[in-house]
Design a protein that fits this description.
The protein has about 325 residues and is mostly loops. It folds into two domains: about 250 residues, Alpha-Beta Horseshoe (Leucine-rich repeat, LRR (right-handed beta-alpha superhelix)), CATH 3.80.10; about 50 residues, no CATH class. It has a ten-stranded parallel sheet with strand order 1-2-3-4-5-6-7-8-9-10, with no helix packed on it. Helix 2 runs antiparallel to helix 3. The radius of gyration is 25 Å and the shape is elongated. The N and C termini lie far apart (about 50 Å).
Length: about 325
């Protein structure tokens, strides 16, 4: 692994420099690389980034997993389009504030993770942002995100957020991660165009607000959901990726017709039994499950049924 990069000093025409995953601590040599457009110092031992303030042509900067505490030099990098920074480990120096990012008015991708920041008011001027990742911080107030109307991806996992009302104006938002927070109310998401929602380990009790979302991924484990009347509406979503086990209970009132449709498309293999006879037995088991639609035993019955199949393929 490289620790000394002083020998690069004569390469003043560099436009891209990738030195991630080394043991570099001193980056003073880069101050001469004024033509740099992309710089990757991810996963090193860098404390001081003052040398980068002269790199005014820089568009992409990666500083993830470093023991940086002061990112103020980036305020000079007004052409930055992409910026990733995160702290290295719990015992290291850590970033406390991000006020210097307010000058990055052209930035579209911003990731500031695993730091000590709690105030994100500086981001409200970054109206060109499309991806914002502020995971693993101490944020509770996200009012400032309401101004980021072009956001498509927002990651806020592992913070202290309870109120997400600021998100109701994010009409371009497609992917949202609020895992491991204290969110109770999902109603601000009601009119968004979300395709992916991750809200594991919060304090959510009611999911009525998401009934009309056309979700492809939904993760809401470890909450306090009580209202299960959404089965009919949630069945209309195109949940074709990961669905958490608790959502198996949200089988719609239309389940019988759905299963009848599926039955025609199920392919059973690795059985010596006659296919027609197996199909009949399968249908009988489904019907017994359907008769228990209002019972809390529905999930175990479905699981038991599918565990007994050696192979099953369901297609459109």
């Amino acid at each position: 692994m490289i620790s000394d990069i002083s020998g690069l000093g004569s390469l003043t025409n560099l436009e891209k420099l990738f030195l991630w995953s080394n043991k570099i601590s001193d980056i003073s040599v880069v101050q001469n690389f004024i033509n740099l457009a992309e710089l990757n110092f991810g996963s090193n031992r860098i404390y001081d980034i003052s040398a980068i303030q002269s790199l005014t042509q820089l568009q992409t900067l990666y500083l993830w997993t470093n023991p940086i505490s002061d990112i103020s030099p980036i305020s000079y990098l007004v052409k930055l389009n992409t910026f990733y920074v995160s702290n290295k480990w719990l015992g290291s120096q850590r970033i406390q504030q991000i006020t210097s990012i307010r000058n990055l008015v052209d930035i579209q991708t911003l990731s500031v993770c695993k730091t000590e920041i709690s105030d994100i008011s500086a981001i409200k001027q970054l109206t060109k942002l499309k991806l914002l990742d502020l995971s693993g911080n101490k944020i509770s107030d996200i009012t400032s995100v309401s101004n980021l109307r072009k956001l498509e991806q927002l990651q806020l996992s592992s913070n202290k957020i309870q109120d997400i009302s600021a998100m109701k104006s994010l009409l371009c938002l497609i992917k949202l991660d609020i895992n491991f927070n204290g969110v109770v109310d999902l109603s601000p998401l009601r009119y968004l165009l979300l395709q992916e929602l991750q809200a594991t380990d919060n304090k959510i009790t009611d999911i009525q607000a998401i009934q009309h979302l056309e979700l492809k991924l939904l993760s809401i484990e470890a909450n306090f959901i009580q209202n299960l009347s959404l089965s009919e509406q949630l069945a209309e979503n195109n949940l074709n990726q990961y669905i958490p086990p608790p959502l198996l209970i949200l089988i719609s009132k239309r389940t019988k017709s759905v299963f009848e449709s599926f039955e025609q498309q199920i392919q059973l293999s690795e059985f010596q039994t006659d296919l027609q006879d197996m199909s009949l037995k399968f249908k009988q088991k489904i019907n017994r499950v359907l008769q228990s639609m209002n019972s809390i035993q529905l999930i175990p019955k479905i699981i038991e049924l599918f565990q007994k199949l050696n192979s099953m393929e369901i297609s459109q």
